[in-house]
Design brief:
By secondary structure, the protein is an alpha/beta fold.
Length: 303
């Protein structure tokens, strides 16, 4: 496989084989953790993972080694380990497999994998890796990559089971996928002492919105038709906002609710105002949705 990061030190990264597996991996791992990367020349994700994995191993400065095995040329050990798809990465320590993952994962997840295996990271380095991973996960979720975000949040929780940001983020992933019960179960993992954390409160608000959505699923056709016939049908607009919020379109929900407030700020005893404040909380009080929404709400109320 082409090396895209320059020639790595021969004692840290090497090509392996079925014949040399016992010496290069099993025996070597009795004195130092060894990572095995099963790959093949035709595998696209392998070409993405390999340079990132080599880079992270080299950065570990000798705390771990990497052995790369081309399964086309050496299928024996891969078959014994039950490898069904590649890239497949296994970590060996003291002669036995102790951890692993499949697929091309983000660099932050690779670093945490190596940190956990080698115990090389001090508190500051570990915190930096977790912060980077959380940022990646948040960006992935914002872009609609629910599966990718969930994978990274789960990796963070392996390193730090009490990470509120990771728990809340994973709950948001389930919520975005429409799995409300899973989201609720995930949120129950939050330690009691951190139950009032703003991230947790925000997800709880989002769960309440999802649970309170009008019957009929995510279909807005009925409410759209009602509003086309009567733009002042505030009940229909309120229910439309509920459906939008439940499926994650918080900005759209805010727009519908503020339209009600603009036309009749006291409608249904201020229900629209109360609901828009809950959406601000669900979006995060520092989010762009909340900031823009508060400015518009203030302009309506104090004009």
């Amino acid at each position: 496989m082409a090396d895209t990061i320059g020639a790595p030190p021969a004692d840290l990264v090497k090509d392996g084989s079925d014949q040399a597996f016992m010496a290069d991996v099993i025996e070597a791992s009795k004195t130092q953790p060894v990572i095995v990367d099963f790959w093949a020349p035709w595998c696209g994700p392998c070409k993405t993972l390999a340079p990132a994995l080599e880079k992270a191993v080299i950065a570990a400065k000798g705390k771990v080694k990497l052995v790369k095995i081309n399964i086309d040329e050496h299928p024996g050990v891969a078959g014994q380990l039950g490898v069904r798809s590649i890239p497949a990465v296994f970590a060996f320590d003291r002669g036995r497999p102790v951890d692993g993952f499949m697929g091309a994962v983000p660099e932050s997840q690779i670093r945490m994998f190596i940190d956990k295996l080698a115990g090389l990271a001090g508190p500051d380095a570990a915190e930096e890796d977790i912060a980077a991973a959380l940022k990646e996960a948040g960006e992935a979720l914002a872009q609609g990559d629910i599966g990718g975000a969930a994978q990274v949040y789960a990796a963070v929780l392996q390193a730090d089971p009490e990470s509120v940001k990771a728990i809340a983020g994973l709950a948001r992933c389930y919520l975005a996928a429409g799995e409300v019960e899973q989201a609720q179960d995930t949120l129950s993992m939050v330690p009691e002492a951190k139950a009032k954390d703003p991230e947790v409160q925000s997800v709880r608000a989002a769960l309440e919105l999802a649970s309170a959505a009008p019957a009929g699923g995510s279909d807005t056709a009925t409410f759209d038709a009602a509003l086309k016939a009567n733009p002042n049908d505030h009940a229909a607009r309120y229910d439309l906002a509920g459906v939008l919020a439940a499926r994650g379109d918080l900005e759209g929900a805010v727009n519908e609710l503020l339209t009600i407030v603009e036309k009749d700020r006291d409608w249904n005893e201020g229900a629209a105002r109360a609901q828009v404040l809950k959406i601000f909380e669900a979006a995060g009080l520092g989010s762009d949705i909340a900031k823009a929404g508060r400015r518009r709400l203030s302009a309506i109320l104090f004009s």
